[in-house]
Structure prediction request, 297 residues.
Amino acid sequence: MIKAAYLREYSTYLRLERGLSQNSIKAYINDVTKFFQFLEPSGKLATRATHQDLIDFITWLNELGMLPNSQARVISGLKSYFGFLTLEELVEDDPTTLLELPKISRKLPDVLSTMEIDQLLLAIDLSKPEGVRSKAIIEVLYGCGLRVSELIALRISDIHADAAYILVEGKGSKQRLIPIGSVALKHLTIYLNEVRNKQKIKPGMEDYVFLNKFGSTLSRISVFTMIKSLAETASLSKSISPHTFRHSFATHLIEGGADLRAVQAMLGHVSITTTEIYTHLDREYLHSVIRSYHPRN
Prediction:
């Protein structure tokens, strides 16, 4: 009962004070629950846990075969939870203070070349309404660097065509303005005028941009399935998802010379270090930068 009460209060803290999304809150609660499960045989409460208990817990995760990246996420969740307990004066000393995250490798994201994106777009059957919608979806994903959750939540009232901007609500309900290019805006307008305007729309869905054939909002799975199907039609060998277009958006901007801070703002990253993963530029590009800007060249 005590554990459940603490988790409810922690969930409220994450929602109201940290401003986290429901998915993020669920992930944090799951991480803390894993620690509760580990302590259960000993009968010890988390509020009585020591630094050694946490070390033993990490060893246990390791023995279960959990990868370092996943371990790091769980430890971050525990640090957050014990930070909450300390704030509420439910523990005197935070046992996670000296806890170090495991060393993890940063996997480079899969990126499509501009040629591969064109190849994918050419595979779309524009004679069908769903093809026009698919074209608009991919152009917006690639042209604005949206997450799939941001795409399906996009509203008509968020599109400011005159100023060429869209308003996006990202993680933690944080809003940001993103420029939308002429090509993406063109195909978005075609979809809205020629397909969406002719649909019967379910009550409450009138302001959402992308709708399924039943007049309701698209699901993440339907966008994922559409892209997978197009990749097969286009004979692309890479395994791609909606997030691949976000990776490609950021990578192509940086390769083209865009400022890292500007890309960070458009992606909605809190930390610049998250954006830095997109600086995996090819060697020839780096050589060209040296040749163009270094005084000895």
Q: What stands out?
A: The mean pLDDT is 85. The beta strands are 159-160, 165-169, 175-179. The chain has two domains: 2-87, 114-289.
